Sequence to fold (168 residues):
Amino acid sequence: MADNTAETVKKTVETAASTVKASAEKAQATFQANAEQAQAAGAKAFREVADKSAAGISELNAQGKQNLEALVASAAAAQKGVETLSAQSVAFTKKSWEDAAAAAQSLSQARSIQELLELQTSWAKSATEAYLAEVTKATDVLTASVKDSFKPINERVTASVEKFQAAR
Fold:
């Protein structure tokens, strides 16, 4: 009976050892599978974040380029307006000097004080009207120049606002 008990204990120990070994192997396999799943999920999440970051950086670069292009277009429009105003001013100044010289010659040929006053009044009236017409013309050019200068910037601001609102 002692042999039988020893044999039973031995079989029980072997069965228990075999069960523990199988459980340990199963636990190790499960742990390894879970670790591989976690690693794959982490790698996928990292890849997604990296892709989104790269896309975001590309988008920022594109936005920066478009903003710079808008600033260059704005500066070009402003420069064109300044050139137009400058040319207009030079032309008006030249014409004003010519008109003043002609008026001075006409005034010097007046035969009476009455004629002198009439010529001077007529010249002053036409000079004032020409000046006011020139100021109106310059105001129109300046207004158009400012509008053209801000147009590219306004378009960029509008596009950026629309993009941010769409992203919400």
Observations:
- The chain has a mean pLDDT of 88.
